[in-house]
Amino acid sequence: MTLQDYHVTRSSNAARTAAILGALILIALVAAPWWAGRADMRLMGEIFLYLALASLWNLMAGYAGLVSVGQQAFVGFGGYMLFALTMFAGLHPIAAIGLAGVFGALVSVPVAVLIFRLRGAYFAIGTWVIAEVFRLGFAQISSLGGGSGSSLPVAIVKSLASKRAMRESLSYWLALGAAVTVITAVYLFLRSRKGLALTAIRDNELAARSLGIDIWRTKFTVYVVTSALTAMIGALIFLQKLRISPDAAFSVNDWTAFVIFIVVIGGIGTIEGPIVGTLVFFALRETLADLGTIYLIVLGVVAIVIMLKAPKGIWGLIRARFDLQLFPLGYRVMVPGKTDKS
Amino acid sequence: MDWLNVIVQGTLLGGLYALFAAGLSLIFGVMRLVNISHGDLIVLAAYLGLTVTSATGLHPLLALVLVVPTMGVIGYVLQRGLLNQTLGDDLLPPLLVTFGLSVIIQNGLLEVYTADPQKMDAGTLETASLAVGGLNLGVLPLLTFAVAIVVIWGLQWTFYHTALGRAFRAVSDNQDIAQLMGLNRRHIFGVAMALALGVTAIAGVLLGIRTSFDPSIGGGRLIFGFEAVIIGGLGNLWGTLAGGVILGVAQTVGAKVDPGWQILSGHLAFLFILAIRPNGLFPRISA
Amino acid sequence: MPEPILQIQGLNAHYGDFQALYGVDMEVSEGEVLAVIGSNGAGKTTLMRSITGLLSNGPGQIKYHDKDISRLRADEIAIQGLSMVPEGRQLFPSLSVRENLMIGAQVGRKGPWSLESVYKLFPILEERKDQQSTSLSGGQQQMVAIGRALMANPDLILFDEISLGLAPIIIKDIYDALPGIIGEGMSAIIVEQDISKALSVSSRVYCLQEGRVSLEGTSDTVSREDISRAYFGIE
């Protein structure tokens, strides 16, 4: 057994199996309009959008250490951009979604410059203040319905596709595309140089700084990119809802609390966590939602227990038990004889 | 005169915000904990006040005799039973656990008291006013402001002139060494949280006399308290009073311009101060 | 043979995966002054942290007055009358000199030490009693740290590297004062890199090397050669 027998690899059998399985599932999901009912498609669309939001929040909190309780700022902002750009600028909804991302990025720059002055938990509350400023600000714009909000005009809805079934399929595919795009982007980002820098910062800020990693800039980049993508998801969410109001658009419960629960339950700081968390969250919601407030209390208790007893969430437990990694980020040394056939 | 009135009303409103902020500032000072559920605990105190007044017929201010110790006990138990487990170098556990707590308290209140807005009946206190130099000052806002001054003075005195305050500062400086001197930090933290929630109880009851409240308003109260803390400068108790006053004045001035701008102008004033003085106006410790 | 006040048996200590102490045995008798020497990283500070309860230990490894204290928290151990002058002094910066001393008395044990007697030992501290502790010179800060530990009226006091970072003249003053301090019937463990200083005030000496006891002997009979062998591990 010589040193050459050892090799360093990122992939593993599990990751390859997951990739093949993932591709098959993805094909089945793309084909959903041909096999799923309308209600199922709506639900799946919602699941994908939450998955995307959760993956983005996880990138910020779990990797960049930017714990935000104000991501509803960008969800709502994106939603309002969709309405404003289609209603007043006459843009096609899909173009409006893209532009919502651009504007989201632009707005997030001054926001980041301001609230990055706050550290840790105070940063979190600062993001909430920003979301409140957005909510109260949009409530002042009477052409968008002020405090009571407005509906997307029928003509704009029809411009997406004239037939209802087609519209529903399209918005489903957009949601699926968003989730796939976000997860892929997060995965590729974390594998990149910048992503490795991020992990280094998370693990040890002092050491990372001494290695010459510009922490402020790395976090800033993450914040701006996340905000842009969150705004696009927000536009998609309100394209499905067709109606927007300040309270719905900037709801801390809907767009932040649920997202945090998803990530914490699934496993913060892992790519797989938000996926697991989203599935668990929707399973709980579909079975317990009738309980109303009790359901939310249960969710809160579960999140606290997980945070204290298993801080890496359900995925962390699975990974510790089976040494699994579906989205291989780290390298591992394969010992000859123990290698999988590759 | 109109504008003077607006500024005076805003200043008095700032007293209430300083009370929101004092508890937040205290626990941050002692254990570097930022409690996201702070606003919901204020609302919880208001509901406890409501329950006591409607069950006993006591005046809301007298109900404080029961509400303050109850909140104190809740604080101690919460800290020893839950929050102490979250303290450490990692930022996430305290943040996410108190966030979960916020959701639990809010929905627990919804379950018990429904979403209907409630208000405490304080009789003539609510409408009584004093004419001072052409201004008409409500007795309740004046009382609130006076209470804020007394509470902050009391906290300040406790911090700098008692054995408990000495222990607070020692644990805040260096937990390990304080432990070596026989101070059980878990207990000290519990006492600090009890004290903070005692102040929160006063804030909640005064809030509940002043305006109607429902389970959803906790987040907003947390934000006001937080803004007062940051404007005033971290770790400075008198600073939180100044921060509360600035926030209150910004809100009443905004409301004078356009009623829809009340809360928004408070937030903008906060962001403005954050832009020009990131450490607040009177900082004492860096976060 | 006087009663042992502190008995350490097979003490292991870990920081995560890293083991810092391997089966350390040690004993301190009542009224005895023990020196613990060793190079940087030999495990001296870890030993202090284990004894005082800042590190958690396995059961039965440390006995104090015949009582197992291995699993107690630091504050519970402090109340039993074991106090420490920590390395680097570690005063509380937001407390005045007087308040720092008062914190030491927090455990509420009776004995000869009080504000008055500490001020008598170090008169300068009374002059500076209302100043922030961080405004004092290094030597004065060390006096506060010693006074703070004495205020607990301990039976056993640990001095961790008290000469570190101080001018030689001040070190001399402090070591001259030590016998007077310990003479009040206390036992002491002195952890020191300055070997001759440590030997001059102690009756017995232990040397640590890479987490193990490499030498144990009486301070006035132990030879230079033995020490350098135990200290550096040179055969």
Q: How would you explain this protein's 3D organization?
A:
The complex is a heterotrimer of chains A (342), B (287) and C (235). Chain A is mostly helical and 342 residues long. Chain A contains 16 helices and 4 strands. Chain A has one domain: ABC transporter involved in vitamin B12 uptake, BtuC, CATH 1.10.3470. In chain A, the strands form 2 sheets. Chain A has a two-stranded antiparallel sheet. In chain A, helix 3 crosses helix 14, helix 13 packs parallel to helix 16 and helix 14 crosses helix 16. The radius of gyration of chain A is 21 Å and the shape is globular. The relative contact order of chain A is 0.17. Chain B contains 11 helices and 2 strands, in the order H-H-H-H-E-E-H-H-H-H-H-H-H. A two-stranded antiparallel sheet of chain B has the order 1-2. The mean pLDDT of chain B is 93. Chain C is α/β, with parallel strands linked by helices and 235 residues long. Chain C has a 6-stranded mixed β-sheet, sandwiched between helices. Chain C has a 4-stranded antiparallel β-sheet with strand order 2-1-4-5, with helices on one face. The longest helix of chain C is centred in the C-terminal third of the chain and has 15 residues. At the A-B interface, helix 6, helix 13 and helix 15 of A face helix 4, helix 9 and helix 11 of B.
Q: Which key phrases capture this entry?
A:
heterotrimer, A: 342 residues, mainly alpha, ABC transporter involved in vitamin B12 uptake, BtuC, two-stranded antiparallel sheet, two-stranded antiparallel ribbon, 16 helices, 4 strands, disordered C terminus, B: mainly alpha, 11 helices, 73% helix
How would you describe the shape of chain A?
A: globular
Structural class of chain C: alpha/beta
Show unreliable segments of chain A.
338-342
| DSSP summary: helix tally of chain C | 9
Proportion of helical residues of chain A: over 70%
Instruction: Label the CATH architecture of the largest domain in chain C.
Output: 3-Layer(aba) Sandwich
Termini separation of chain A: 18 Å
> What's the quaternary structure here?
heterotrimer
| Counted beta strands of chain A | 4
Net shape of chain C? globular
- Termini gap of chain C: 34 Å
Query: Which sheet architecture does the biggest sheet of chain C show?
Result: 6 strands, mixed
Number of strands of chain C: 10
CATH class of the largest domain in chain C: Alpha Beta
Global Rg of chain A: 21 Å
What order do the SSEs of chain A take from the amino end to the carboxyl end, as H and E?
Answer: EHHHHHHEHHHHHEHHHHHE
- Report the helical percentage of chain C: 25-40%
Total of domains of chain A: 1
